[in-house]
Amino acid sequence: MITPHKYLNLDLSVINVSALIIDKLKTHNLLTYDELLNMTTNALGKNAKEVFPYSLNFLFLLGKLHYLPELDVFQLNFD
């Protein structure tokens, strides 16, 4: 998913969707999974729904995203 190929739509790449998620979390401090998904699909279209979980995993692996289970929300990690 991260490696580009001839038929990859760059707007729906993992890195672009991850950047959008970071941007949304900068403007709204805490967001649920559904809120993030709705904002992403509104901005990039319904095909972004397929890439969304991979983008969340990518951000978790980089340490940019923090999940608060008591509130069931995501928060941007500023560490």
Overview of the molecule:
Helices cover 52% and strands 13% of the residues. With 79 residues, it is of the alpha+beta class. The chain has a 3-stranded antiparallel sheet. The termini are far apart. 18% of the residues are buried. The mean pLDDT is 89.
Distance between the termini: 27 Å
How many helices? The count is 3
Mean pLDDT: 89
Total strands: 3
Main sheet record: 3 strands, antiparallel
Assign an overall shape. globular
Radius of gyration: 12 Å
Ranges where pLDDT stays below 50 over 5 or more residues in a row are none
Run of helices and strands: HEHHEE
What spatial order of strands do you see in the largest sheet?
A: 1-3-2
- As a percent range, the share of strand residues is 5-15%
Helix content: 40-55%
Structural class: alpha+beta
What's the SSE blueprint?
Blueprint: H1 14-27, E1 30-31, H2 33-44, H3 48-62, E2 65-68, E3 73-76
Antiparallel strand pairs: 1-3, 2-3
Helix pairs in contact: 1-2, 1-3
Describe this structure in a few short sentences:
Helix content is 52%, strand content 13%.
Task: Using brief descriptors, characterize the structure shown.
79 residues; alpha+beta; 3 helices
